[in-house]
Amino acid sequence: MGQRPAGIDEVLERVRAGYRRIEAREAHEAARTGEALLVDIRYAALRERDGLIPGALVIERNELEWRLDPQGSHRVPEATGHDLRVVVICNEGYASSLAVASLRQLALHRATDLVGGFQAWRAEGLPVEPAARRHGASPT
Please, where are the H alpha helices in the chain? Predict the structure, then answer.
């Protein structure tokens, strides 16, 4: 009989063993000094409900690899090279770990994620702005 398939907890453990995750205060300082690009992959409803991290680049999870691949034709201007330090942020720090594994397959070797995600950021009292402020009010 074959091996038992890995469950998600085991997959996360394996993925996370391959890099060092970052805590909220360290991520804040790295972004503040320009040493890291914060990338928020939370879906729109969570961003609208909880707000945004000032300065974080919002990229939906389903577009992440295309937007951050420095060789890709759909990359964002911030995707300047494979040495870019990217800190991926999801809501609680689970989906971001899987996203990092994917980015590392694209040779973004400094990609990491935020332990505890956006919720840990907010719990630390770090800056959060309402989603409406970033996107502006819709004209009526």
Answer: 8-16, 24-32, 44-50, 64-68, 95-105, 117-123, 131-135
Task: Please tell me the distance from the alpha carbon of residue 121 to that of residue 130, in angstroms, as a whole number.
Answer: 15
CA dihedral sign, ordered 124, 54, 37, 13: positive
Per-residue model confidence as pLDDT tens digits over 108-121: 999 999 999 999 99
Interacting residues of 90 by C-beta distance below 8 A, sequence separation 6+: 41, 42, 61, 96, 99, 113, 117, 118
Query: In terms of Cα–Cα distance, which of 33, 28, 78 is closest to 57?
Result: 78
Is the pTM above the cut of 0.70? yes
